[in-house]
Design goal:
By secondary structure, the chain is α/β, with parallel strands linked by helices. The protein has a single domain (7-282, 363-428), classed as TIM Barrel (Alpha-Beta Barrel). The protein has 14 helices and 13 strands. It has helices spanning 36-48, 68-71, 82-90, 109-122, 149-167, 225-234, 245-261, 283-296, 299-310, 334-346, 351-360, 368-380, 397-411, 424-428, and strands at 7-12, 53-56, 97-103, 127-132, 175-178, 183-185, 195-196, 201-202, 217-220, 237-240, 270-280, 364-367, 386-391. It has an 8-stranded parallel β-barrel with strand order 1-2-3-4-9-10-11-13, surrounded by 8 helices. A hairpin with a 4-residue loop joins β7 and β8 (201-202). The radius of gyration is 22 Å and the shape is globular. The two termini are 38 Å apart. The structure holds flavin mononucleotide. Flavin mononucleotide (FMN) is lined by residues 11, 57-59, 101, 130, 132-134, 149, 221-224, 227, 239-241, 274, 388.
Amino acid sequence: MAKREAVLSVIVDAWGGMHPGAWRDPNAPADPAMDLERIKGMVQTAERGKFHCFFLADSLAQAMEKDPAVLALTSNAARYEPFTLLSALAMVTDRIGLALTASTTYSEPFNIARMFASLDHLSGGRAAWNVVTSTGEAAPNFNNHVLEREERYERASEFYDVVSGLWDSLEDDAFRRDKDSGLFFEPGKLHSLNHVGKYFSVEGPLNISRPPQGHPVIAQAGSSTSGLAFAVRVAELLFTYGLELDAAKELYAKVKGMAADEGRNPDDVKVLPSLGIVVGSTQAEADAKLARIDALADPRIGIERLKGLIDYDLTPHDLDGPVPDVPETESWSKTMQDYYLGMAREQNLTVRELALVAMRFDAVAMSADRVADHIEEHVTGNAADGFNVSFADANGSLEIFVDEVVPKLQARGLFHKDYRGATLRENLGLSRPQNRFV
Ligand SMILES: Cc1cc2nc3c(=O)[nH]c(=O)nc-3n(C[C@H](O)[C@H](O)[C@H](O)COP(=O)(O)O)c2cc1C
C-alpha cells in the first residue's frame, strides 16, 4: 500500500526567524520583515519545495515584547499586514497555498468574507483562513473589548457560519455576461443570507463572485475544550503545538474521533503539529547555527516573553540563580505556565536557561536526515498528517529543507513530487463545498 503523504506548511511568525537572536547572525538579512524582495524569495523557495502552504501567523497588537526597550532588541516591531502581503505574493507564485490568520473577535464577518474571497480569486484558488479568536493582547487596540474563552468561541462559530454563508451569495454559474440580451447575471442565482444571530446581523449578499475554491480552506488551532470543539466542526487544517510522539498520537486519535462524531470524514481534518527547527546538512552544522543565535539573543527578551507565558516577571531575580516559585496564574496562560515551570523544576534550570527556552520556542537543531526521520515517524505512526514548519533562523534552514529534506521525503514516498492541482483544496485532496443555496 502506498504510504500516506505528508502535508507541509511553512509558518512564518517572526520574519527574521522565530529565534530573537537570529536577525543578528552575520548571514541573516538586515531587514527581514519589510524587505519585499527577500519575502518573495522565501515564498518562491517554499514553492520550489512543493510546500502545500505558506502561512502567515498574525496578531492585532505590536508584538510579544511589550517593553519598548526589549522590543527594540528584536526584529519584530514592523511587519506587513497579511492580506495585502499575500495579495502581492499571489502575483509571484502559481501553486503554493496562501494562508493567513484573521481574528473573529476583532473583525466583522462581511469584511473577512470579502477579503478572503478576493484573495482566493487573485491567487486562482489558493487562499486559506486560520480562524483565531485572539487572546487579550489586541483588546487595547479595539476599545478594550474582551471576551472570555467560551464567548470567544461562541462568537467564532457564528462568525464562521456567516462568512461561509456569504461566500455562497452568488452561485458558481450565476454569470451569463450576455451582451445580446443585456443580462449580466441571473438574478435568481444571487442569494441574501439574512442572518440574525446572537452576535451578528448580516443581510448580504456578498459583492464578489463565489471563490474559486467554493470556500477558502479553513485552518484552526484551538486547543482548549471549546477551541477543539470548534476546530473539529470547521477546520480542514488543524494546527497544534509540537508534541512528543506518544502525546501526538493521543491527540491525533482524539481529533479524528471528534471529527467523526461531528459527522465528518476524519481524512478531511488534517492534523498538523508545529515543528520548529534549525536545519543543517549535518547535525554539527545545525548545532553550530543554533548555538550562534543562542549567543546573540539577549536574555531580557526571554524574560519579557516569559512574563506573558508564566504570568510573572523574573527581572528582579538573579539570571544565574534558580527559577523561583511563582504564584499560580488565573489567566488564560495556565497551560503555558505549567509547561515552562514544570520544565524548569524537572531540569533544575536557571533563570537564564529558562529565558533561552522561551526564546527558542521549542526549536530544535536537526540535520536534514533527522528532520526527514521525524516527519516519517509521526506521519506513518498516526501522530500527524504533516507539519507546520517554522524556521528558528533566517540563515539557510528553509533552503536546506527544500534542497535536502524534501528530496529525502519524496524518495521515501512520503511527500508529493509535484502539486497535483491548481487550487489548495485540490492539492490537499479536499472536496469543493456545495453552495448551500443550491
Ligand atoms: C501553529 C499555531 C499557530 C497559531 N497562530 C496564531 C495566530 O496567528 N494568531 C493568534 O492570535 N493565535 C494563534 N494561535 C493560537 C490559537 O489560535 C489558540 O488560541 C491557541 O492554540 C490556544 O487555544 P484556545 O484558544 O482553545 O485556548 C496559533 C496556535 C498554533 C498551535
